[in-house]
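haha ok so turns out i had the wrong file open the whole time. this is the CORRECT one, sorry everyone. sequence first:
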Amino acid sequence: MDIEANRKARKYTRKELIGRMLWAACSPLFRYSPRLMWGWRRFLLRSFGAKVGKKVNIMPTVKVFIPWQFEIGDWSCIGFDALIYNLGEIKIGENVTVSQRAHLCAGTHDFRDPAMPLIRSTITVHDGVWICADAFVGPNVEIHKNAIVGAGAVLLRHVENDVIVGGNPAKPIGKR
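then structure:
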């Protein structure tokens, strides 16, 4: 593993670095806002380029890494301590629930390359999906309409419409 080469590699543009620094400086305004200030957190995310639908509820302890690479549809919600690690784009549809401590991870590294360069991936979550507590959704995953990702599941593959997955690695366990 070439750690030195990885650290020297330019992973972000100058504009992205400035945006991330500004977001980091403003993130206490998000994190320490009272629980019921849903509109304030929607406003902050939109101010940094996120596409946030109507009546979206995001808990103050949710961590969104790069707001301008985040989209969430109307009437969706994200529970406390959820991690939206959106090095790549994360799109969440309408009427989606992302429960507490879920982790959506849209970034990884190419372990085949000794320098382990950053890979920015995407995650797409379609309408009506429920991602249960403590679930992990990995890079390049698409979760189709009305699917459920069970509590504590580790999801590394696509999920079709109305399918319930659970376990590690997540496998189909039922239909909705």
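Helices lie at 3-8, 14-31, 38-47.
again sry for the mixup
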